[in-house]
Protein: 5'-deoxynucleotidase
Organism: Vibrio quintilis
Amino acid sequence: MIERLKKQLELVIELDRLKSILRRTRVKSAEGRLENTAEHSWHVAIMAILLEEYANEPVDISKVVQMLLFHDIVEIDAGDTFIYDSESAQHQEEAELKAAERLFGILPDDQGQKYLALWKEFEEAVTPEARFAKALDRLIPVMLNYCNEGQSWKEYGVHKHQVLSMNQRIEQGSECLWDYALEIIDQAANNNWLKL
């Protein structure tokens, strides 16, 4: 039991590193400060609980929340890749798998295998839970960019077609949330926060 607990607590401490992984989106409540991955994971997990009713299919919300809390822990090793940076994204998949294997490998075997499988399920996005989790994961940066007047879109010269293309998978998890995303993406383009 002591050895099992040591492994679990080792991962808990390792996860503290998520607080220092910065993303490209700024938080709404603190002008100028970039969001970190730990904040993102918490935020999107709360979204899942609040927005469950908008999933296209019934989902096990506990599983969705677990996916969202674990989905980005790989950024501890692999870093965060900006969704619109297609060149970096080519190498990210391999780096993230290696990171997932290392991080979940810290845990006792039964837990490590369980959460590695859950992480892979999220990445593959074929189950209702994974599709809904992916939808929320894609929606929150769109919402934050909109609330911050297109902050990272403007900083990185993002085009409307890129935002539509990269975020269309929202529709697979929630048609209602995709309709909302389309509305704010159109408004952002009309406000010149996105290139046309």
